[in-house]
């Protein structure tokens, strides 16, 4: 089955058109709702970090990795809020596609173009967060299975 799914993935990679991985939010109302979702997600992750710390769970590797994931998700959300605000709400940056793989970012505020460019690299926060979450949950499941196999003892 793995070989077939690998062949399907390779086929899709070779035949699909570019995704242009950006997302519009349909006017200012869509942007505001989207921003509110980022705020709520960041607050939820902050609450998770607080609860893990309060309940002294980071002594277990799984919970520590989940806590790292939550912290990175907070940073990712703050980054996304900033990018959406600058790009879609106050429109302080202009992005022009010059050619394939070439963009020109301009702003009336000195240095904001560079900060915006760095902030748009939000996958550098989100992907590790997903990795920490995955590893942490896998460790927690393994610990739970070990407890179950040992009759509930740690």
Search tags:
mainly alpha, transmembrane helix, signal, two-stranded antiparallel ribbon, membrane, extended, transmembrane, 154 residues
Mean pLDDT: 88
Summarize the main sheet: 2 strands, antiparallel
Q: Biggest sheet, strands in spatial order?
A: 1-2
Run of helices and strands: HHHEEHH
Radius of gyration: 21 Å
| Helical percentage | 55-70%
What is the count of β-strands? 2
Structural class: mainly alpha
Question: How many structurally independent domains?
Answer: 1
General form: extended
Alpha plus pi helix count: 5
Poorly predicted sequence stretches spanning 5 or more consecutive residues: none
Distance between the termini: 36 Å
The percentage of residues in β strands lies in 5-15%
Explain what the structure shows.
The chain crosses the membrane at residues 31-50, 66-86, 114-137. Residues 1-21 form the signal peptide. There is one protein chain. It contains five helices and two strands, in the order αααββαα. A two-stranded antiparallel ribbon has the order 1-2. With 154 residues, the protein is mainly alpha-helical. It has one domain. A hairpin with a 2-residue loop joins β1 and β2. It has helices spanning 2-15, 27-54, 61-89, 112-119, 123-149; strands spanning 94-99, 102-106. The mean pLDDT is 88.
């Amino acid at each position: 089955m793995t070989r077939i799914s690998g062949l399907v993935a390779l086929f899709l990679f070779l035949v699909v058109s570019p995704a242009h991985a950006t997302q519009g939010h349909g006017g200012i109302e869509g942007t505001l709702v989207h921003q509110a979702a980022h705020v709520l997600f960041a607050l939820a992750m902050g609450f998770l970090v607080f609860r893990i710390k309060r309940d002294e769970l980071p002594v277990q590797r799984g919970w520590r990795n989940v806590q790292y994931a939550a912290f990175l998700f907070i940073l990712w959300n703050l980054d996304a809020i900033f990018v959406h605000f600058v790009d879609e709400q106050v429109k302080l940056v202009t992005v022009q596609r010059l050619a394939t793989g070439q963009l020109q970012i301009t702003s009336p505020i000195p240095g904001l173009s560079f900060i915006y460019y760095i902030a748009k690299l939000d996958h550098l926060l989100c992907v590790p967060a997903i990795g920490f979450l995955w590893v942490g949950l896998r460790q927690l499941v393994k610990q739970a299975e070990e407890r179950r196999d040992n009759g509930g003892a740690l």
